[in-house]
């Protein structure tokens, strides 16, 4: 079965410029005490603009000084014990499911279509030997993730990417 969507001829309408979209994401961040948290945030600074000869589409350009793209395959029953993200990074599940637990005890489960920003650098280990976050796969298939590691310093404020 194909995932291709074929619009009906003549069914296309230009987007309403007053109906800017919002895309939700989970932001894993660390506070001034070095404790990690997860906050639900939104990308909400979209501009309606065409690219080349393409019809106008909603774009939300994120400033950065560069990035490294890394694809990961986490095996079935994989668990990454307490660790920090190697850099501020966007994480996009391609297939499978995974979970992330922050130091404050919040556990989020994600799959394809979900989006996470891992920015928990600078955490301070606690008495329970937690530092950063734990993560792992869910179910009977590997979790395939694409990460976009930003070449930028972390910011200790949830939702600063908008």
TrEMBL record:
Q: Entry's SUPFAM superfamilies?
A: RmlC-like cupins (SSF51182)
Stretches the record annotates as Disordered? 1-23
Xref: InterPro entries:
RmlC_Cupin_sf
Q: Mind telling me what this protein is named?
A: Cupin domain-containing protein
């Amino acid at each position: 079965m194909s995932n291709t969507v074929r619009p009906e001829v003549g069914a296309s309408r230009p987007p309403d410029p007053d109906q800017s979209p919002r895309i939700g994401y989970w932001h894993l961040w660390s506070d001034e005490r070095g404790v990690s948290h997860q906050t639900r945030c939104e990308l909400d600074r979209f501009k309606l603009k065409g690219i080349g000869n393409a019809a106008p589409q909603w774009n939300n350009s994120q400033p950065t000084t560069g990035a490294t793209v890394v694809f990961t395959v986490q095996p079935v029953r994989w668990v990454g014990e307490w660790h920090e993200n190697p850099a501020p990074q966007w994480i996009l599940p391609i297939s499978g499911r995974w979970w992330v637990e922050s130091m404050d005890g919040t556990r989020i489960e994600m799959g394809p279509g979900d989006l996470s920003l891992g920015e928990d650098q600078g955490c301070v280990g606690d008495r329970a030997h937690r530092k950063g976050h734990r993560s792992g796969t869910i179910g009977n298939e590997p979790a395939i993730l694409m990460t976009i590691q930003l070449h930028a310093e972390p910011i200790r404020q949830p939702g600063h990417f908008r």
